[in-house]
Amino acid sequence: MNKAQKRTWLCLVISLAGISLGAAAVTLIKIMQLNMANTDHHTTFRLLSLLLTIPLILIVIIGARFPKKIFDERDKLIDRKANAVGIVGAFVFLGAASWFLGVITKMGSIKVVQITLLVYLAAFVWCFISSAAGLIQYGGGGKDGKK
Amino acid sequence: MARNELKNQIRRLRFDNGEMTQQQLADRVGVTRQTIIAIEAGKYAPSLPLAFRIARAFNMSIEQVFQLEDGEI
Question: What confidence tier does B69 reach under pLDDT thresholds 50, 70, 90?
């Protein structure tokens, strides 16, 4: 397993954590809106924002400790394909989530907080899908013998 | 529809050249060992410049290292 693969694994784990936190935040906001009408939403959103920045900080730290290195033409090709798949995945996620919030829930519009969370989640979905696509193309890695 | 499969003799050539390891070949041609593994297994088709570098590492022509097998599907 080369450094590019290790970096991809780390990004996969952190993006998964980011997605989980984002999904938890969306659920929490929804529950609050349904059950606690008098709750101080601003304080909750501030706390959630703080919580959601943790994975972002981790991504920045990983970016600094494991700078993106392209070792050869295969790494370059894998990186390019994985990023393309990630971008498509993020757009599909944004479209599907917006459609769900706007049409299925019959709200007709999306709140600023929700769209902020969607963009946040889309960034992690991009990271997650591109990492997964990269790992699939690497084929697990590190299993082959030296000879 | 024509399907082209790229076969190669890298594994045999490595052993014929003093049991060269994948890492040694990778260092010679400037790629990672994983890329050599992928090429040997036929999972990755190298670019033309890399194919030339690999052939040169064995002092052979590109056709002696890589063969294109045509097949109809």
Answer: confident
Instruction: Show me where the domains of chain B are located.
Output: 2-72
Q: In whole angstroms, how far apart are CA A147 and each of A63, A101, A144?
A: 33, 55, 9
Nearest to A13 by CA among A137, A127, A145, A141: A127
Give the closest-approach CA distance of A135 to chain B in angstroms: 13
Q: What is the second-level CATH architecture of the domain B2-72?
A: Orthogonal Bundle (1.10)
Task: Name the minimum distance, in Å, from the CA of A140 to any CA of chain B.
Answer: 11
Say which residue, B29 or A24, is predicted with more confidence.
B29
**pLDDT tens digits, residue range A41-63?**
666 667 677 777 777 787 777 77
Indicate the residue of B21, B37, B46 with minimum beta-carbon distance to A144: B37
What does the domain layout of chain A look like in residue ranges? Answer: 3-138
Whether pTM > 0.80 for this model: the answer is: no
